[in-house]
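Anyone up for a design puzzle?
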């Protein structure tokens, strides 16, 4: 009998086409967004395809008595109750690094947008103001010292791209060896506090764990130089979002860019401030990335059942 493969997320059609052409699977394509919606449809599934916005809680797992495999189309799996899944013997496959290039490119774009005040100029020109009087007060990226929190696949790519702009790049990551730091193009800083002191732009690239939850709070933001820029394209829970917004309002931060939020989607209430850039968790979303993720994820699903 074919395995029921529930695709509960938006995926590239190549995954659907390949799964439907494989006699081992019966594909059900029903993207959902909420935990309630997922719990309501997951019952017959033996394979569940998810993305970061699908909350695979114990409640969802309890509603899926036949579930054998969760195939996550992102690198992080913090949306999955891993302990509950393992207790049931449910396997989990994910895609570490598959979206790293897309995220890194967005981060560089956010740096340029903030440091050259592109949103401000856009507003001014759109409203009939064509002023270049202060443009020479803006700096090129090589003027800024970049601090990267987490030098994994995304952090590494941000580091390498930043070097192309001539930036000074430092990073904090206790899990990366000295040799890996050298390969990834960043100067090692041995504590988060030390990194904050020497960074003009701070960008966050760590997974969400018990240790990283709220690792950048009000105290850490105050430790940044006045006039610094802060980017979060990792997970919303890593940053104290309210503290960051307060620091922007107090002009301690010169710019704040958020691609991820806590909660997600956010409740709103953001200030109408051109120094604040908000994107709806699209860092890892590009045509090329989505297509590659679809192909690789199906290969992992197929490989899981290759010997079964």
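Challenge accepted. My sequence:
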């Amino acid at each position: 009998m074919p395995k029921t493969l529930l695709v509960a997320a938006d995926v590239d059609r190549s995954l659907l086409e390949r799964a439907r052409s494989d006699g081992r699977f019966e594909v059900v394509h029903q993207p959902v967004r909420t935990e309630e919606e997922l719990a309501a449809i997951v019952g017959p599934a033996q394979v569940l395809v998810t993305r970061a916005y699908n909350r695979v809680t114990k409640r969802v797992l309890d509603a899926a008595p036949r579930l054998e495999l969760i195939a996550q189309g992102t690198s992080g799996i913090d949306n999955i109750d891993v302990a509950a899944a393992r207790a049931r013997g449910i396997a989990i496959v994910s895609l570490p690094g598959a979206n790293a290039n897309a995220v890194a490119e967005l981060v560089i774009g956010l740096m340029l947008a903030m440091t050259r005040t592109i949103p401000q100029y856009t507003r001014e020109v759109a409203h009939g103001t064509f002023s270049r009087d202060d443009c020479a007060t803006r700096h090129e990226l090589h003027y800024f010292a970049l601090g990267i929190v987490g030098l994994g696949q995304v952090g590494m790519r941000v580091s390498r791209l930043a070097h192309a702009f001539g930036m000074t790049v430092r990073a904090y990551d206790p899990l990366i060896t000295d040799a890996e730091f050298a390969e990834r193009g960043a100067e090692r800083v041995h504590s988060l506090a030390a990194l904050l002191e020497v960074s003009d732009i701070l960008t966050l690239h760590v997974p969400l764990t018990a240790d990283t939850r709220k690792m950048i709070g009000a105290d850490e933001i105050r430790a940044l130089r006045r006039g610094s820029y802060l980017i979060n394209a990792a997970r919303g829970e890593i940053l104290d979002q309210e503290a960051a917004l307060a620091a922007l309002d107090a002009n301690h931060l010169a710019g704040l860019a958020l691609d991820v939020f806590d909660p997600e989607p956010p409740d709103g209430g953001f200030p109408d401030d051109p120094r604040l850039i908000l994107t709806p968790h699209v860092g890892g979303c590009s045509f090329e990335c989505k297509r590659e993720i679809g192909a690789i994820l199906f290969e992992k699903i197929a490989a899981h059942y290759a010997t079964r």
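A detail worth pointing out: The chain has a mean pLDDT of 95.
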